[in-house]
Input
Amino acid sequence: MTSPEPQAVDTDVVVVGAGYAGLTAAARLVDAGVDVVVLEAAERVGGRALSEVLPSGARVDHGGQWIGPTQRRFHDLAARFGCRTFPTWEVGKHVEVWHDGACVDYLGAGRPTGPGVAEYRRVTALLDDLAATVDLERPWTTPRFAEFDALSAQDFFRATTRDQDAIRRLALAVQGVWCAEPREISFFHVLFYVASAGGYEQLMETGGCAQDSRFAGGADAVARALAASLDGSIRLGEPVRTIRRTAGGVEVATGRSVVRARRAVVTVPPAALGRITFEPELPPARRGWARCSPMGRVAKVHAVYDAPFWRETGYSGIATLYGTSPVGVVFDNSPEDASLGVLVAFVYGDRLDGWADSSQPVRRHDVLAALAGVAGPQAWEPLDYVEKVWPREHWTIGGYECFVTPGGWTAYGEDGWRAPTGPVHWAGAETASVWNGYIDGAISSGDRAATEVIGALKARTG
Amino acid sequence: MTSPEPQAVDTDVVVVGAGYAGLTAAARLVDAGVDVVVLEAAERVGGRALSEVLPSGARVDHGGQWIGPTQRRFHDLAARFGCRTFPTWEVGKHVEVWHDGACVDYLGAGRPTGPGVAEYRRVTALLDDLAATVDLERPWTTPRFAEFDALSAQDFFRATTRDQDAIRRLALAVQGVWCAEPREISFFHVLFYVASAGGYEQLMETGGCAQDSRFAGGADAVARALAASLDGSIRLGEPVRTIRRTAGGVEVATGRSVVRARRAVVTVPPAALGRITFEPELPPARRGWARCSPMGRVAKVHAVYDAPFWRETGYSGIATLYGTSPVGVVFDNSPEDASLGVLVAFVYGDRLDGWADSSQPVRRHDVLAALAGVAGPQAWEPLDYVEKVWPREHWTIGGYECFVTPGGWTAYGEDGWRAPTGPVHWAGAETASVWNGYIDGAISSGDRAATEVIGALKARTG
Output
């Protein structure tokens, strides 16, 4: 029953988590001459960005994978390390499988027809109008804040339209953006998020929007490069167990180390905060915020083929599925040179539950059935088939990010969202004002937390 | 509360049912100079053969649709009325969707590889060996009759192989032939049926076998022609309520008529006999046989396209699906000149239950998903989509035919299968020795029953 004595480490700032937020914070602090230790639970950096080279040679992104033109911080960081991007493939007919099995092929982003489209557009234009009123830095000062936060997205949709087809479209959009169901999410959070991205279209579309481009070397390449520049200060495989406030700042314990620092930057998503014991315990607002911030439920499934065969018959490989398939959306994730064909299927929200509980052969069958249905029978025979079920990941427990349940912003937002807790500063994509929930937001959150810490360290020194 | 007095009709023989069995019996009797009245519950003739011209112009067979080269009686009857047949389309790659989503494309009937195929072939060769011992006229005299009849097909498969993949193949074969599950069906009945068809391959394959050819004018065209030749003796829309034995023979009552005859030929499937009241009630063996003869559960779903587009990419349109889809088998049911493309999906056995209980949009979605998965995304947009759920048909209550449950043959076969009950003679595909369950068997059963009746009438006269 003997275990090695934990190693004691002294530093200025301890950063918990080596995803984009933590790495950015650490880099900013190091640049400012601050001594930093980064503790990462996993044996790798990148957090919810994770790429892998499969046996076929295809590199796939299991997590975040896109970058859009207005995501300036992510662009700047990628440019700094020379990480090359290329446009998401969207040439050809997109397939829309309607809930009754009716199918619409449509070209590119233009979607001229389809049940409920006109009403869907009316409602999303209204979302944009309401989102324009949101104060991104102090969301609780937004007009009608409490009124909207008391509603679920579903409440709002039902009160706004009787068109069931439009509601079907809105529901898939909520699944696609938040990996949750409209009944689960605060309508104010929807507005905040739309505002944070710069408009509804930014969230939904490909070219010019959030899904504009992909990374040749995987979306975690930038994180890996950033981590390499922090050589020596990152400790992998050290899940933080306890964060204790001390006279001098904080003492952060993992199984192997105790890191003493003046300040901490914690980038753990709110929903995963329960994995860490805080002494003294976190204030009620921060605990309440975490309770009201569940993580979305998503799986990404990649199937690799020897060529993007769907392009030969004029299909883009992009599909949206409203029916009984577990798959909601499909994208062409082939490499830039089309040396292989790759389809990615997203399974999210309620669709994930039954699927994830099935046996592997059933899961595989049902995803390949969807892919064959939108790309052709050749899709049944992938060279590689690989699933990433994010709710099964021990440290990230879901994806893409935490959303906020109805009433959560009102009850806990002002004090619980990202206000520092003594020597503990909060970062992570969920704490961003711009591109909240995205890698770009994670980067800006790390930057903001580093700024807070530098200010606090100066104040104490000064 | 007054209703018109039933019309009294006197004739030599009353035939109940205007499917192939009843029409054949009636025609044979008329040819022999016997006066006949045919009572048919539906407003049409043909029974479980039923074709329809859809809005697209495609003629589809909702019921029985094929004819094979060894089905001589059906061939002779079709030839008599000049009903033209053409080969079932089977050119190109067949698709086999395995339970885990793995797909095998194979050419024609040659299926060289695939999980469990070798063991499946070993078991089916054993079926053929055992079937060769069956006495088709007096099945209860077959060696090991009671032993095999005590087993379900599932019992036999499990005792014969441990190869789960082979068992999956056998289970789909049972669904495909009997529209039932292996646990439900007597293993002796399987052997009897294999023998009745002339071998296992005859049941399963296309060219040269039971699925060899289709009718240009629908598989009910022969029945319609035969009915036209019986002009005047068929009364449609007259479901039989009561069959009463009288001193002179039988008295058969519908809501509109009472037909008095010396003999009756009843072609109603055993599972539907409960719809008729017999006075005195049927003997225990016939009632027991009916109880042990449930009707298979099947739906046929047709989707019509402007062309058989799957042929352009080298696919035959023939597919077998072992996964979670409700669809088990798909065939190319296009017209001979390929002026339209038609796919037919079979949903049977346990697969039918959940599917049939779903809403129409879900049913449609799930069938089109299967078709798109084996033919390509164009399959999502049929010109016509039409379902025939046979268990919902009031008078036929299922399809293709009644099978026999374990122990049924032993307990009731000798006295209950087709032995006449006083003046009532039994016909229908279920009573045939050759091609039992098929249109060819229905025809021969009508012939046999007519022979019985003619003999009985002569005996009484003579």
